[in-house]
C-alpha cells in the first residue's frame, strides 16, 4: 500500500468495488475492479480485465487493494456535532425511568445544551466537534452534515454554523451545514412560540443565509418542539432564500410533518418512527429521502419502529445517520449505526451501506459523491472486508483500512 499518494493521478487495482454506478436501478458490485483518479476526481472505473494498458508514467501511484471491499467514502447525513457541554446526567436520569420528553419539559434536554453552547467560544466548539468527528473519520466518513440548533439566538446560531464550517479546515472532511433555529423554544420566548418563529424567519434564518453559513434549513416538528403551521413558516422563509429544507418529524408522535416537508420538496425527513401511509405517499411523490436514526431510537429505548417495508414498497431512498447529539444519541460510530439499522429496523447490510453512501448523498442534495462513478469526488474507503455484511457484523470492530479523500490518502493502516 503506497504511503504518499499524489492527488493528481492514482489508480486502485484488484478492488472489490461496491456501490458502483450502473445502468440497473440498483447500484452494482465489481468483483475485481479498478478505479482511476485524476485531480481528486474518479476518471475511470472498470473491471480489471479492461484495465487500460498505460505505457508511460501518467499514473503516479498504484494502490493494490488485494481483493478488499472498496466503497464510496461514508456520509453521515444527520448530526449535531457542534455543541457545548455534555448531558451524562440526563442519560443517568433516563436510566432511572424519566422520559426524554419529561426531561425536556422540565428544562433539561436541548435547553441545557443551549445554555452551555451560548457560553462556549467558536474555537472551543470547533475543537470539541473535530475531536468527536475523529471517531467517525476513523470509520471511513468523508462527508458530514452538522446542524445548528443549540443557540436559539442569532449570535449563537451563527457561531455554531461558523464552528461547523471551521472543521473543514481542521480535518480532511466536507461539512454540510443545516440551520436548525426551529429546534426548541428558548426560555426568552416561553409561552410565545409564534413570536420565536417570527424571529427565526425574519432575523436568524436571513442572517445565516446572508453569511453563506447554511446549506439547508431544518426544523423539529413535535409536541415538545414546533407545530406543522410553525414549521411551514420556516420553510417559506427558507424558500425566500433559496435554501433546501429537511425536517425532524414523527419521532415521538405523528403530527404530519413528513407530508408537510414533502410538499416543500424536502431533501429528507428524519426519524419517522411514527410515519403513516399518508406521509409515506407524500414522500414518495416528492422524492424525499427517509433518514433513519437508530441511535436515538436505541438511546431512548423506543419501541415504535419506522415503517421500513412501507418505505421500500414506495421506493423511497433510505438513508442512515448517527444523529450524534449530547442528549438522545451520543453515538459516535457510523458502523454501529449501520449495525443498529439492521438489527433494530431490519435493513439488510446492503441497504445500510446504501444508507450511508448513495442515499445519504441524496439526503444532502449532493450529486458528486456517494457512488463510485466517473466524475464523482474520489472519496473512497478500502476495507479489511469482502462484503457489506462484514462492516455491520461485529459491533466494535473497525475494518477501515485506507481512506482517500479527494484522491489523497488521509488514513491508512499500513502496507499489507
Ligand atoms: O435529532 N429531535 C431533536 N433533536 C435531536 C435531539 C437533540 C437533543 O436532545 O439535544 C435529535 O434527536
Ligand atoms: Fe437530530
Descriptive labels:
globular; binds fe (iii) ion; 8-stranded mixed beta sheet; 416 residues; 8-stranded parallel beta sheet; alpha/beta; binds N-(iminomethyl)-L-glutamic acid
Topology diagram in text:
Layout: E1 9-20, E2 28-38, E3 41-47, E4 61-64, E5 69-72, E6 74-76, H1 88-95, H2 100-105, H3 110-118, H4 122-137, E7 141-147, H5 154-170, E8 174-182, H6 193-210, E9 216-221, H7 228-240, E10 244-249, H8 257-263, E11 268-271, H9 277-286, E12 289-292, H10 294-299, H11 308-313, E13 318-320, H12 334-343, H13 349-355, H14 358-363, E14 380-383, H15 388-392, E15 400-405, E16 408-412
N-(iminomethyl)-L-glutamic acid (NIG) binds next to helix 3.
The number of distinct helices, counting runs of at least 4 residues, comes to 15
Total domain modules: 2
User: What's the total number of strands?
Assistant: 16
Biggest beta-sheet profile: 8 strands, mixed
Bound molecules: N-(iminomethyl)-L-glutamic acid, fe (iii) ion
Amino acid at each position: 500500500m503506497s504511503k504518499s499518494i499524489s492527488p493528481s493521478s492514482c489508480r486502485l487495482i484488484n478492488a472489490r468495488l461496491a456501490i458502483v454506478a450502473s445502468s440497473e436501478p440498483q447500484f452494482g458490485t465489481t468483483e475485481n475492479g479498478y478505479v482511476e483518479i485524476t485531480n481528486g476526481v474518479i476518471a475511470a472505473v472498470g473491471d480489471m480485465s479492461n484495465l487500460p494498458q498505460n505505457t508511460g508514467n501518467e499514473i503516479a501511484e498504484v494502490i493494490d487493494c488485494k481483493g478488499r471491499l472498496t466503497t464510496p467514502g461514508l456520509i453521515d447525513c444527520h448530526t449535531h456535532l457542534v455543541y457545548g457541554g455534555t448531558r451524562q446526567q440526563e442519560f443517568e436520569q433516563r436510566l432511572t425511568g424519566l422520559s426524554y420528553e419529561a426531561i425536556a419539559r422540565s428544562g433539561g434536554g436541548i435547553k441545557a445544551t443551549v445554555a452551555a453552547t451560548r457560553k462556549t467560544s467558536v474555537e472551543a466548539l470547533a475543537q470539541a466537534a473535530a475531536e468527536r468527528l475523529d471517531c467517525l473519520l476513523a470509520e471511513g466518513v468523508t462527508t458530514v452534515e452538522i446542524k445548528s440548533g443549540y443557540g436559539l439566538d442569532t449570535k449563537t446560531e451563527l457561531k455554531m454554523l461558523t464552528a461547523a464550517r471551521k472543521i473543514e479546515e481542521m480535518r480532511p472532511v466536507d461539512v454540510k451545514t443545516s440551520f436548525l433555529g426551529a429546534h426548541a423554544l428558548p426560555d426568552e420566548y416561553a409561552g410565545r412560540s409564534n413570536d420565536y418563529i417570527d424571529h427565526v424567519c425574519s432575523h436568524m434564518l436571513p442572517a445565516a443565509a446572508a453569511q453563506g453559513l447554511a446549506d439547508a434549513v431544518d426544523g423539529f416538528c413535535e409536541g415538545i418542539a414546533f407545530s406543522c403551521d410553525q414549521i411551514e413558516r420556516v420553510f417559506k422563509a427558507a424558500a425566500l432564500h433559496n435554501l433546501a429544507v429537511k425536517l425532524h418529524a414523527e419521532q415521538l408522535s405523528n403530527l404530519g410533518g413528513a407530508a408537510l416537508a414533502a410538499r416543500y420538496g424536502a431533501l429528507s425527513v428524519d426519524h419517522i418512527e411514527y410515519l403513516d401511509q399518508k406521509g409515506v405517499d407524500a414522500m414518495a411523490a416528492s422524492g424525499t429521502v427517509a433518514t433513519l436514526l437508530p441511535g436515538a431510537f436505541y438511546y431512548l429505548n423506543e419501541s415504535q419502529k419506522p415503517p421500513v417495508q412501507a418505505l421500500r414498497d414506495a421506493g423511497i431512498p433510505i438513508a442512515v445517520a448517527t444523529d450524534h447529539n449530547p442528549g438522545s444519541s451520543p453515538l459516535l460510530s457510523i458502523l454501529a449505526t449501520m449495525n443498529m439499522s439492521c438489527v433494530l429496523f431490519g435493513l439488510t447490510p446492503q441497504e445500510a451501506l446504501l444508507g450511508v453512501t448513495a442515499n445519504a448523498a441524496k439526503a444532502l442534495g449532493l450529486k458528486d459523491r456517494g457512488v463510485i462513478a466517473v466524475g464523482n469526488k474520489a472519496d473512497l474507503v478500502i476495507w479489511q472486508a469482502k462484503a457489506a455484511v462484514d462492516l455491520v457484523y461485529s459491533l466494535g470492530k473497525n475494518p477501515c483500512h485506507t481512506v482517500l479523500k479527494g484522491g489523497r490518502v488521509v488514513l491508512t493502516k499500513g502496507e499489507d
